[in-house]
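Section 5.1 Outputs to date
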Amino acid sequence: MRIGVPTEIKNHEYRVGLTPPSAAELVAAGHDLFVESGAGRGIDFDDAAYRAAGATIVGTAAEVFARSDMIVKVKEPQASEIAMLEPRHLLFTYLHLAADKPQAEGLMRSGATCIAYETVTSRSGALPLLKPMSEVAGRMSIQVGAHYLEKEQGGRGVLLGGVPGVAPARVAILGGGVSGLNAAQMAVGQRADVTIYDINNDRLAELDTYFGSQIKTAYASRAAIAAAVARAHLVIGAVLVPGAAAPKLVTREMLKTMKRGSVIVDIAIDQGGCFETSRPTTHDDPVFEVDGIIHYCVANMPGAVARTSAFALNNATLPFVLRLAAQGAEAAMAADPHLAAGLNVSGGKIRHRAVADALQIAMD
């Protein structure tokens, strides 16, 4: 198969769909690889590294799309990229369509087959291609949250771990999945006062066993969330409903009860965010303030640590890319219902129920 890797063009997105080691695996399997010049520059791989792996370097994204059957990316295609998609194309990348109707409509018009990393499942029901970036975003959420709690950043001036004689910051993590677990690991490491909220009692029990006395757990009732928001210095939104828009767990009224200079980090912003006051931001302008509360809502958080993120993502996606390239999309999905769960758009129609429901678009 002819596989294309364009340079990512989303704001401050430095990751790349395929690293040179991944490119070498695909070339060894007999596939042709076309990489846009400079695609790996953000993670310190020049064109020569891709040539050494057996890839062909081309000058523009347009040439990548024109010469390729499958496009492998990291972030959702931007408008200029959607315009280059054709019905013959297979697009394999993160899409997050539930919060992006214009993108969904553009992909439908293209006629391309679009498989989203974030809805591919595993036998256990987990999301193996979302997991590595959820791990990165969870860990980053504490890093950026601690930074914006600093006074010169507009924060409350609270050190996450406190010092002897001064209490640590209170961190509330909404959602005990992969992102929430990784956020808690980092917050515990910085000696913060951490509570994780979830609606799955089995998951709360697992987290309690994992962390022991290092954290507290609580059932995520509306009342519990309201109380948590009122007392927390840092709130991490880490809720995920696969393929669907994130639920709005924190209302504007709840926000008004927070201490001035407190910080919200909305990891769920790719799926619309779980705070009523959230809106997507970029690495150029990552935060905004509502009622004295700092909101960090960058929609591609892992792009800030691009090298770590690109390798972690490739570790997860490469086996699927190899399978799709060897078998073609139709045969690969027929053989693997978990890969088929990643199909979001094909033949001009939405093919994923949660996405269709979120966008109120008929599947038939």
